[in-house]
Amino acid sequence: MMKRGTELIIVDPRATWLASRAKYFLQLRPGTDAALYLSMCNVIIDEDLYDHEFCDNWIYGFNEFAERCREYKPDVAAAITGVNADLIREAARYWATNKPGSMTWGLAVDQKCNGIQTATLVLLLCAITGNLDVPGGVLLGASDREAPTSWWGWDELDPEIQAKRIGAAEYPAVSTACSTTQPDMAMDAIMTDKPYPIKMTFTMSSNPIACPVADPQMVSKAMLRPDFNVFADLVMTPSAAAYGDLFLPVASSGEKDGLVGTHYGALTLFVAACVKGVQTGECKSDDEIMLDLGWRLNPSKFPWKDLHEFLTWELNGYGIEGTFDDLVNSETGFVTPPYEYEKYAYGLQTWNGEPGFGTPSGKVEAYCQRFVEWGDDALPYYEEPPYSPVSTPDLFEKYPFVLTTGARSWSYFHSEQRHIERLRDLDPWPTAEMNPADAERLGLKDGDWVYLTNMFGKCRQMLKVTPIVKPGVIMAKHGWWYPEKGPDDGGAGPFGVWDANINQLVPHNCYGKLGFGTPFKCMICNVEKAEGGPDFEPAWPKTNNYLEFCN
User: In terms of Cα–Cα distance, which of 243, 162, 155, 235 is closest to 200?
Assistant: First the structure.
């Protein structure tokens, strides 16, 4: 796309490869995205650059939203975000006047207490410029006018059972949007047996104490309380080693039949067949494991006689005719489902078939009525991170860096693959990135081992001194554990996970008003030089306690 003339606006605290090639690079303080987007919307509205036709016909509460945006003029947003006010104006004008435009975002939008509001503003920035569901814009999925499959069986439960869903009453946004519990409250229930004991857990393709949870040492202690913990995964993770009772080996992509599709919400742009090439041991695919459980627990809700019949049903749900075997034997092995633009104008975006969007007003809601029902502000707003130079200035004196976690590596996906020799050769240690000016001031150099600390915890990583990081910011990698260590490594945790896991600096029970979001991307910390690194070097295959443990 760049070779064909596409220009980029990049919002990131790091000067990434894409940022170095962007027309506008908005290098903001982590956690302040919502203020930036409110300001960009303000520029677009105040300078009359918005799409009048779309806003008049399809946006609910546009005038109220315009008033909220006026609170965040570029000079105000610049003081909050650290992005130059003129740069904010220029980027906003460019976005509004060069159409079509599309947005992509990842976990950084979600991983803050203000994440729901930030995501709302990203979409409103697209909506007010007429970039929703148009060629080259942000595409939207169509409604199939059937109940979402994630809610299957819900209506069959007795009301008293439904009422036991943890966090449903306290956080109706979570319970309305997701067929799940509020996760922090569920973990509290495991710890306290209140409102009732949790007797069993089932963890599928997740490594909690090394990757996705805040305060992982607390989680590790909590997970020793249930009577039975089941893990289904490709490898024996530190979490499975720490508190698993039963391990179900999951098939990799070469060991299973399945479907692969793009999945931003209900939007699917292609579906491809995954074809089994080999059987290794007793492994089964995720689909096979869940079907096997379903046939035993509630066969009326699992009517498919085998895996291929289920995959055919799933394929047809994408709007694609034929069977799974037809797809496998087709010329390409993949198919693009039918797609229409501006579905909201033709009744393809709502459950009842009427023109509009799937909201109470039938429009894109800049003034969100559901937010009011759920106890929040109807209009999107900026909220300072709970721990920051602004919200906790006294703590910031002791922990004077803004910490953002989750820096990606080409070698790994989250906490996976640390036991693979060639990948460890490429990327052997967890690293924390620091600006050269900060390193010089602290007397640190590239390759030093440092402790990252704050009021919640501590970990050790190798320092990477690089100008791509904004001064005053630390970018730490996540998902680290050491297969060289043993499953019971004393104070360092299973496979040394407590030595390296940055999530120990992120608190439990710290989330937004609607029950979503945790500040993985916007904490505070201090950096101190460590006496050295771990007491081993990556030595493959001479020292591999992980493989010995698995065997």
Answer: 243
